[in-house]
Design brief:
By secondary structure, this protein is mainly alpha-helical. It has six helices and no strands.
């Protein structure tokens, strides 16, 4: 039982071999299932590692954002909508792109959902 406790307490169980004989008996996918039962918090890094090994790094890294290509795919019925993650701020790149396309100043309209909006509770 101490062997399983050691596996459970590991900081990186997704990079640690399962206790014998299970590491040799199970394939990579089956080992992820065991990991899911013991340490569900480490499933995402285990899947990332699995996909990287089986398919390659390009399948776990997001492609670089191409504003010009996205603009080319947009139209008045399919506008550009940015859903940002923490630390991402495309504002400056977007303002420069708008200026380059002749849509700077008052021609450019930006709506920031969630910013400055207050929720009022009614009774």
């Amino acid at each position: 039982m101490d062997i399983w406790r050691e596996f459970y307490d590991s900081k990186e169980p997704h990079n640690t071999d399962l206790p014998a004989p299970w590491h040799e008996k199970l394939n990579d996918f089956q080992r992820m299932i065991v990991l899911r039962c013991i340490r569900p918090d480490k499933v995402v890094p285990a899947i990332t590692k699995f996909v990287t090994i089986k398919l390659g790094q390009k399948f776990v890294q997001p492609p670089p954002f191409d504003l010009a290509k996205s603009y080319g795919d947009s139209n008045c019925c399919a506008p550009l909508i940015f859903i940002l993650s923490p630390g991402a701020d495309p504002t400056m790149a977007l303002l420069k792109f708008a200026e380059d396309k002749g849509f700077g100043g008052k021609k450019f309209n930006s709506i920031s959902l969630g910013q400055g909006q207050v929720s009022h509770k009614t009774k």
